[in-house]
Amino acid sequence: MLELGRGSPDRHLAAIAELERQVVDSDGGRPELEWGILRTRPQDAVHDRTATRRPARATPRVTLRDAGPADAGVVARLLRLGFGYEVDDLAGRLADGSAPTLLVERDGAPVGTLRVTGDGADSGVYGFVVDPACRGQGIGRDLLRRVCARLRADGARRVGLEVSVQNEQALGLCMSLGFRPVATEDHHALPVP
Length: 193
Prior knowledge:
Residues 62-193 form the N-acetyltransferase domain. The protein is of the alpha+beta class. The chain has helices at residues 9-21, 72-83, 90-96, 139-153, 168-176, and strands at residues 36-41, 45-49, 62-66, 101-106, 109-118, 122-130, 158-164, 181-184. The protein is globular, with a radius of gyration of 16 Å.
């Protein structure tokens, strides 16, 4: 099982909250991310972020928390909206920690989800989705900046993120944060009657 950096999910959420409160440079910005990778589908281009950018301040009404088994229905709905697929035994995975997942809430209402994995220098963001009704409001940008700042604080030098090359809005977001393509992957399927 891959975990978010090192330590418990509660420690990571507390550290994210602390990063949100910190003023780390002279003009009041947030920590900068040095590296990142974006894997895109179909057929998948990988982006490498080597330029540093200063993240904007967190959106105060948006919070992150660990998703538990009771959140399986909400997480499943968001994944269906974002990707059109179901995850087998999502409640079980949330209960046993095999799919460390964060739930994104605005004013207490669920608006997004993502899984964060890591093994030291290499980390990944997967299943990153913002409810279509809430897109274009800065939630995804804020969330990605906060999570990348947390991963950097945990020692990550690379962050993987998969995005469909057909999802121009998400690609634009990632590119605006400094991610660049470094490779392409193709996926093939054989229909089985």
